[in-house]
Amino acid sequence: MRGKSRIRLFIGLAIALFAVIKYCASSDENPYTGKDQHITLSPEEEIAIGLQSAPQMAQQYGGLYPDNKYQAHVDAVGEKLVKYSIASESPYQFDFHLLGDSEVINAFALPGGQVFITYALYSKLENEDQLAGVLGHEIGHVAGRHSADRMSKQGLTQGILSGVAVGSESLSTTQIAAMIANVVNMKYGRDDELESDNLGVKFMIEAGYKPEEMISVMKILKSASGPNSVPEFQSTHPDPENRIEKIQEAIEMYKTL
């Protein structure tokens, strides 16, 4: 039995080590943020994933909103943000979609430039600058390659978990490892959100919008979340109140440049 345990441990370590080596070997600097990332997907693959996933994601939120006037408004603001930001230098194909869902307040971006905002959120915005704040944040996710980055990180943690499962005969050990990996991935999500806020402020200023209106967006989101919102530690999104402080710092920084 001891021999079999050693073999299991050796195989488990090999699986985990392979996952770590593969992850570390993919290190590269993001030309749009200057941040070192470990991403195995090419920009072309990101674009393909986004285009393939876009119809399904739109369907989940009631399809596209039928009013072409509102859609044109979203397009115009999104395209202006891209035109005057570093996003215009990227290979990504930015498309902006107003979704028909009138109940779920949400905005999100797929890899490669597919950006979505629900009518429920759009209808709560009070001016074009606030819309620019929402779209600028989502453009930041694309430029930051956050989806591709997370896919790579999940591949790493999955490889390590597989190694632990193979090498350990203890179910509790595997469960603890899975819990730790989940917390780590959630932290990555919060960092991505804060970076996108920062980039969104930069894009707004470059396009001539008032970045202070992103703070107003955070207040709208805070109000919409209600008193029973999920604590920040258990969420991939930072609490809007905590994001406001970082947004204010970004505004002060970019306005002095």
Automatic annotation (TrEMBL):
Peptidase M48 domain sequence ranges: 71-250
Cofactors named for this entry: Zn(2+)
Keywords of this entry: Hydrolase, Metal-binding, Metalloprotease, Protease, Zinc
InterPro entries per UniProt: Mito/Outer_Membr_Metalloprot, Peptidase_M48
Cofactor remark from the record: Binds 1 zinc ion per subunit.
GO MF term list: metallopeptidase activity
Family per record: Belongs to the peptidase M48 family.
Name under which the protein is recorded: M48 family metalloprotease
Source organism: Joostella atrarenae
